[in-house]
Amino acid sequence: MGEGGGFQLGTVGALTLSVVSSVSIVICNKALMSSLGFIFATTLTSWHLLVTFCSLHVALSMKLFEHKPFERKAVMGFGILNGISIGLLNLSLGFNSVGFYQMTKLAIIPCTVFLETVFLAKKFSRSVQLSLSVLLLGVGIATVTDLQLNMLGSILSLLAIVTTCIAQIMTNTIQKKFKVSSTQLLYQSAPYQALTLFVSGPFLDGLLTNQNVFAFNYTPQVLIFIVLSCLISVSVNFSTFLVIGKTSPVTYQVLGHLKTCLVLAFGYVLLHDPFSWRNILGIAVAIVGMVLYSYFCTLEGQQKAREASSQTLQAIDNESDPLIRVEVGAGGNTDGTSQTVWSSNKDLQA
Questions:
Q1: Which pairing describes strands 338-342 and 323-327: parallel, antiparallel, or unpaired?
Q2: Which of 87, 114, 157, 275 is positioned for an S-S bond with 268, CB 3.0–4.6 A?
Q3: Euclidean distance between the first and final Cα of the chain, in Å?
Q4: Distance in angstroms (rounded) separating the CA atoms of residues 210 and 36
Q5: What is the pLDDT of residues 204-227, one digit of tens each?
Q6: CA-to-CA distance for 193 and 84, rounded, in angstroms?
């Protein structure tokens, strides 16, 4: 299998792993929070990252991947920023209505497109922009209900959008700049993310729930679901870095909205959540947007590959010019100019 084929297979595998693991952890956490009453989301996320780091440390000791240290300031800043973005998203959900929170998540895609266009000079074609608009419209129809605005909630949502976009763009740029894999980046940044949330998590959860995470009644059933959630999170965190590194932050956000649609569908089928024709219409429109986005991205990728191939062939043709220029010295033309000689069978036989 060629290099290009291997990349495509790796990308499909990363996307599949991300979808399966994310939907699984949403269902697990929903049972943990809704049925068992464990509603401390930020603290739970810090445990997720701690378990992820420990799992990767074990994998490193087994030589399943190579540790590649790079600029410590970049890793520290990236890890802390990721932790802050997660905390702000949880605060946004706590201080806003569910509908406004969904609008916050929808705003991440256009914000990412804007930042990449302005600061990274990345170009998005009209076709890709149209497909993203269709996708956002569909997800909006399916998920956004009430829009209750308040000043504090709006500020928190704006900060959550900006930090999330920057963190996801950094995930892609750091991997390419320092030539590190998703596993290597996650291994080095996970402790800073975990520490940021571990310190701030109990305070944020207490602010949002008026409960103390350390005073919660940890029954065996709760502990089992917490352990299960942490184990699934290893796959979630790994696949997140893998998808962003192999594709782009925008593609990862598109994938996130696919997960939202799947969670709605699974919730209706498995948990008998309320479902309406509006949900069905929104999911259908969102799927059309996702298909269009995938189609246009594939076309653009093939076009770039053809352009790169033609440039390579042109360079090879220029290097293998049939004309051989020979400098003629005293034994040739007396004026010292160059003489062009045709290299052919006839000349060799003469």
A1: antiparallel
A2: 275
A3: 48
A4: 17
A5: 999 989 999 999 999 999 999 999
A6: 8
